[in-house]
Structures are given as C-alpha cells and as structure tokens.
Amino acid sequence: MNRPMLKISGLQAWYGESHVLHGVDLTVKEGETVTLLGRNGAGKTTTLKSIVGVVRERQGSIMFDGRDLMTLPLHHVARQGIGFVPEDRGIYSSLSVMENLMLPPKFTPGGLSVSEIFNLFPNLEERRNSQGTKLSGGEQQMLAIARILRTGARFLILDEPTEGLSPVIVQRIGEILKLLRERGMTILLVEQNFRFAQKLADRFYVMEDGHIVDTFSASELDSRLHGLQAMLGV
Ligand code: ATP
C-alpha cells in the first residue's frame, strides 16, 4: 500500500472569532486522487487554505512527507513540492501567459520544461503573449495548473477547478488531471461538479459543518450515490 503523503489530524481553523473547522482528519496517499465534497460553507476551501498556510489560525497536525506544515512559514510550503490552485486561479492580469508561467521559481527538480508544458496545453502556446485579462476562464485554469507543473510540485491541490467552465473545457481539464495522475502526481481537489469528481477520484471525503462526515473509495460510490446527490443538491 502507498504511504500517506498528506496526513491531517484534528485540524481546527478560525477566521477571527469564527470557528470554522472542528477537527478534520484526512489522509492522501502517494499517487492518489482524493476529492473533498460538501455543501457551500462546509469548510472545504478553509481546509485547503489551512494546508497551504494561507489560513494561519489553526490547531492540529498537518504532516506532509513526514514534515509538519504547521510550523513552516507560508513561503516554505511550496518548496516541499505542494502546488495550490485557488478558486480564483491567481493569474496576474497585467502579465502575459509566458510571464505568469515563468513567475514561480522551480522549487524542486523534475518540473516540466516550457516545451513540455506547451505540448500539454497547445492553446497556451498560441496565447503565450496574451495578457492575463484577455484569457478565458478555461485558459486561466490551464495556466494556473501549467504554472505549478513547471515548479516541480508532486502534490497538486485544486479548489473547484471546473467552476464556471463550459463542458468542453471541463472535459479537457479532466483529461489533463488524469494524465498527471498517470505520471504519478498526487492530487487533492475540492469539487462541486460531482460527475467530474466521479470520473477522476480514487477516494472521497464528505464534509459538513467543519467535520469530515464520511469517506469512501470510488468502488463504494454507487452505494452512496443517492444520499450524496440529495445532500449536494445534484
Ligand atoms: P464554498 O464552496 O462556498 O467555498 P466551502 O465548503 O469551501 O464552501 P469555506 O469557504 O471553507 O466553505 O467556508 C467555511 C465557513 O467559513 C463558511 O461559513 C464561510 O462563511 C466562512 N468563511 C470563509 N471565508 C471566510 C473569511 N475570510 N472570513 C470569515 N469567514 C469566512
């Protein structure tokens, strides 16, 4: 069995006085694709932001590859090989595609070269000199993923990568994530698009009110489908 790459135990988080996470336990094994499901406001984004250290009012333990992320400053988290694509994608609007791509330093060996990235995302090559503001939502999402692949990250965290995108682009994002998984990338994603998550994930966690309330593998999904669809409103 693959070793745990990320192991979160008893994670609590706050925004000021507001206590949002109440003891989250979640594990992602090396090479796995894990999806975090849950209603709006359940605490999914806060969980991701707590892992990468954007949310700093936290308690509990977040171990990545044997190292406690809780004690690391924000700028050291990416150096561990963790790439985060936030919900807003984080593309700099005044910079070109190429400038956005080259912005983060290569943190670990093994990142893709620019030509490998353009093989994977031919549309980004066509738009290499376009400004961030001129890109469609799908192009921004692809650029956000491409930028991380260049850094050499081994663990990809995505917050609702399909949000607001057309079905054709959603399919393309799915193909890219599958390809990355085949190449050994470990992936944790938050997704409201249940059909998309269903095609991709090895394992699921379900969150409600700042807790994990269920976890199951892809093979158990069918037996959970009815309840999940009702809960997520799909
Ligand atoms: P969504 O899909 O709506 O983003 P989510 O499951 O990702 O849902 P979170 O964004 O983690 O949920 O939000 C969890 C709770 O924390 C919600 O009650 C939300 O209102 C609150 N919250 C989120 N961000 C902040 C913030 N910056 N300040 C205060 N409260 C916040």
Automatic annotation (TrEMBL):
GO terms for molecular function: ATP binding. Residues 6-234 form the ABC transporter domain. Signal peptide: none annotated. SMART domains: AAA (SM00382). PROSITE patterns: ABC_TRANSPORTER_1, ABC_TRANSPORTER_2. CDD domains: ABC_TM1139_LivF_branched (cd03224). Keywords: Amino-acid transport, ATP-binding, Cell membrane, Membrane, Nucleotide-binding, Transport. SUPFAM superfamilies: P-loop containing nucleoside triphosphate hydrolases. Belongs to the ABC transporter superfamily. This is ABC transporter ATP-binding protein. It comes from Polaromonas aquatica.
